[in-house]
Amino acid sequence: MLKCAYGARMVTPLSIYMDREKIGDADFAALIEKDRSLVNRLRNGVVRPTLDVAARIEAVTDGAVPIKAWLPSPTHREEAA
């Protein structure tokens, strides 16, 4: 994920996918059988999905947003150590 200035939207693999496919939060929420507000928070990088939801997203996007997209980058893991 790429961080933007405070208050700006984060660019996430999910946001890239949804923009490219021209799919809104409510429509994507229906596909993964979750609430629109959760999709909005996922898309904007506010929260990470559970493993189950990440698997649903990977399936619905035909692998365009894989489960591993939600894992912290190696850089963040090194900084935390």
Give your account of this protein's structure:
This protein has 81 residues and is mainly α. The chain is built from five helices and no strands. Helix 2 (25-32) packs across helix 3 (36-43). The model is unreliable at 1-6 (pLDDT under 50).
Provide a compact summary of the structure.
Helix content is 52%, strand content 0%. The chain is mainly alpha-helical and 81 residues long. The longest helix is centred in the C-terminal third of the chain and has 10 residues, at 51-60.
Largest sheet: none
Shape estimate: globular
Strand segment tally: 0
Helix and strand succession? HHHHH
The whole-number mean of residue pLDDT values reads 87
Structural class computed from helices and strand pairing: mainly alpha
What secondary-structure arrangement, pairings included, does this model have?
Layout: H1 13-21, H2 25-32, H3 36-43, H4 51-60, H5 74-80
Keywords summarizing the entry:
disordered N terminus; mainly alpha; globular; 52% helix; 81 residues
